[in-house]
Hints:
Elements: H1 2-16, E1 20-22, E2 27-28, H2 29-47, H3 57-75, H4 84-104, H5 114-140, H6 146-149, H7 157-163, H8 174-193, H9 200-215, H10 219-235, H11 237-264, H12 267-272, H13 282-286, H14 296-307, H15 324-357, H16 362-377, H17 389-406, E3 413-416, E4 425-433, E5 436-439
Antiparallel strand pairs: 1-2, 3-4, 4-5
Helix pairs in contact: 1-2, 1-5, 1-17, 2-4, 3-4, 3-15, 4-17, 5-8, 5-9, 8-9, 8-10, 8-16, 8-17, 10-16, 14-15, 15-16, 16-17
Amino acid sequence: MTKLYKLYPLLLMLSAFSPYVVKSLGIKAEHVIIVPVFLVSLVIALMNRVKVNREIIPLLFLWICFLALVTLRTLFSTETPAGMAAVAEFGNFLMPLLIMVFYFFNFNREEVSETELISKVLRLFNILLILNSFLIIFSIAGFNTDAILRFYWKGFVARDSLGNGRYTGIFNQPMESGLAYSIGVLGWLYLIEKQSKITIKNLAGIILLMIGGVASVSKVFILGGFLLFCWGAFRNKGVRKSLIKVMFILTPLVLVSYQLLEKNWSGMDYLMRFFTIQDGQLLDTLTSGRFGGVNTMQTLFSKIWNDHPFVGLGLGQNDVADSQWFQIFGSSGAIGFVIFIIFTGMLIKKALEYRASMKSTGESKLFESLVILSVIAGIGAPVFTLNRSSSVLWVLISMLLMYKNKYKMKPEEVKIKPLNTVNNRTVTIIQRDPKQYQVQ
């Protein structure tokens, strides 16, 4: 089972970048992986006495409560049946549950370093994102990439976005691309903290990740991932100094590129809206009219509040769900909304606990950034249930909670046998990773 524990997150990273298995039904490679692995892990856990990850229990319980509520609301709804739309939305809500259940059981028998596995997952994910960035660059340069993208795109959103100059590569929506690249740049910071120095390859990687994120013109990336990256880079002296040098060297190239893009990239006008906000239109601009004044979200919110305030409309009944908060309220009403508020509060509580017990670690900083990203980006995107990107987010959150469950940095006296002696010695655990002890 340890081998599956090592392969599972890596397979999910690959599946997030795989084409549809059955496009007409919306079945993706991640569905083929997550569901069978869930069943296998559940059987093995029930047949054996497997330890559990206590850190994930409250989040898992709250998500089960919400899923049960929204499922019952849909089954006993008086609304016109939503058909495949309800099935698709149920699948989006189910995936996080299946991922959390896998990481609820502790299948890692101390043979795998959690930090090494997280690093491998992020490294693979960023390589795949960089390949997608090259695909975006080819599209911007005028190459026909439809031979590849037709296996990934479903519906009209991606093509409409492309017509507006918003390049997403294999991702179906700008918000999906924005979330993926946000996770990518935050993961890049985590990986850099594990190195002794920043290489040219690292700098080339972050430039390509930034190109992919900006090209989507996604608010999730620009107001979420990019700002969190800047905050994280500022906190790291080595990263801050290296990036300032790179920015200084590349300034002429950036100015030339800006002039070219202003004339030839239709998405530039959309991007510049974030930097030319008029008085009284801040919220309206930042949310593309979803919030602020009379808008689509306000109209839909009023409709649900007047008709079904406590339990919502059920799955597949909301035409627009460009907000995690509205998606929750629209499908489950005030009851589901309260559950989700508690769920979000629990995530924030876990981040604060992480910060208190492991403040100086890359794991704490990454978890904190992912939670902040989820809360902020959730205003304008259903980040927990998005196609492709949300699976990556859930895997990382679950893995980081598993690490927290195992290696809390609370000094305690224990007896171990050091590798270089056969005598027991008293040590103080500075970081409870099996490979990192400070002997006293």
